[in-house]
Structures are given as structure tokens and as C-alpha cells.
Amino acid sequence: MTQPSSDPPEPDAQPDASPAEEAPPPAERRPEGRPGRIPLRRRAAWAWVRLLRPIAALAAAAVVVGFAFILEEGAPVWHEVLRVGLSMFAVIAGASAMNDYMDRRHDRDAHIWRPLAADLIAPRSALVLAAICAIAALAMSASLGWRAFLPMLGGLICVGLYNVQLRRTPFSWLPLAIAFALVPPWVAEAVGRFDGYLWWSLPVGVVGGLAAHMAMKLPDYERDDVPGFRSLMHWMTIDYAVPMTWGFMGVFIVLAVASANFERLRIEWVAPAAAVAVVFTLAMMVASFFGVSERKLVWQRWLFSLAIVGLAIGWLGSIVP
Fold this sequence. Notes:
This protein is mainly α. The chain has two domains: about 40-195, Tetracycline Repressor, domain 2 (Orthogonal Bundle), CATH 1.10.357; about 195-320. The protein contains twelve helices and no strands. The longest helix has 26 residues, at about 295-320. The protein is globular, with a radius of gyration of 28 Å. The termini are far apart. The model is unreliable at about 1-5, about 10-20 and about 25-35 (pLDDT under 50).
């Protein structure tokens, strides 16, 4: 009969590991002390880029450069055009930095992805950047003459009033409307082409700026609906703010076409731009008939912004001799 072995088990013998306890494959291992990859949105350099709103700043710079080409009949002085474009870029970048500085506490609840709300940039640094941009814009405008300096100064005062005093009141639309109206005279003075017909930019620009303000701010209606925040849209309520935006767009289109007709109407400039603005406005009216949503308001922001810029260019091209 075979006797059972009396040898003790080997001390190193261990039961087989279960599949759930197996070590992860080499590709999933991370050496100790090696940091993971930082997402782009969390990088400090990218935060500075986002703070400046480069797409909006470049778009605004392109628009004023286009104005200069129209006023100079396609042959502007290159260094004047360069200073005009850089000045507008500095204005938008500085306004964006100041806007984020003033909203840094509110953004922790509503816009946490913004650089100051995410603690990627110190608030004082953003404020210093805004001041540098404002000084740069004023200096470049002053180099184009005191007549160009004054509209730029007026526009920067509007930016400051909006951010510091008026943004939470029913008069939140007023600074952008005035600043929008000052842009064509500023460009004209910068390139030495101001004429009496540009006074039409005051009524046309004020209504266009009002429509632009409504279109840009409506998607943030719910996030900004907090105690102490009573902008024009919150004063109207969303039920009236949306159709009023369409109405302001309609008035802007009518004023642009009518003023061009009173001056030197060149139909090839204003007609296509007005037609696009009408189509975009009607499209948003039809889309919103079945209900208003944040996504639709975002689409409206982009479509109306394009329509307003296009009609401003078409209007200026139609009245320039």
C-alpha cells in the first residue's frame, strides 16, 4: 500500500492567481513619479489664448480691415490698415479679459471652464492684460491722428461702462450699440476718408449693436438668471426677448437698405447682404416656432452675427462714393 508523503509543502508554493488578480498589461502601467498627460484645456498657455478670445478678435480685426479697403477703394496704405486691425484686435482681447475678470465669481457656478473660474490664471494678471490691451489700442489709434483717437477712446469707455456698471442692468445693450456705431467713423478717420454720409452709421450701428447684443447673450439667459442680474433680456423675460431679437434684426435690415437708398445706393453691395440677413432671420423664426432651446439660440447667435457683419460690410460698400 502506498504511504502518503510526509514531506512538508515547499514554502514558496503559492496558489495560482485568479484572472481578476492578474497584473495589468504593460501598456496600462505607469511608472511611479511620471505625471499623466495634462489636457489642453488645463494648460496655462492655452488658458491665456482662451482668455483673449482670438477667434472673435481676429474676426473683428478682419471686419475693420475690410472697412478700410472699402473706404480706400481697394488700395489702402498698408501701415494704416495694419494699425487699424491691430487696434481692433487689442480692443476685443482686452474686453474679453476684463469680462472674465468681472465675472470670475459668477463663472465658478455658470462657466467653470473659463480660465479664471478654473484657477488657471490669476485675476490680477487678467486685469493687467486688459489694461495693456486698452493702452495699446489707444496708442495705435493716436498714431493715426486725434480724430481716430477720439472714437477709440469712446469705444473703450463703453467697454468699461458695460463691464463695471451696466452689464447687470436693463441698459446692458447701450455700450455695445454705441461702440458698434463708432466703428465706421473710427476706421474712416484712421484712413483719412471720413465724409458726411457716414453719419448714417449712428442709427444703423445702434440698432445693429442692439441686435448683436441680444443674439450673443440669449444663449446664456438661464446661466445668468441669478439674483442681482437684470439685463435687458431678463427684464423682458425669455418669452419676449427672443421675438424682440428678430424685430431688432428686421429694423436693422430696413435701416441699412433705406439709408443706402438715400445716399449712393449700389445695389450689388447691399442686396445680397440684406437677402442673407432676411433668410437667416426667417430660418430662426421658423425653427423657434416649435420651441426655443439653448442649442437653437446658439445657432441663432452664429447666424445673426454673420448676418450683422455681412450687412454692415454691404451697407458701407453701397454708400461709399
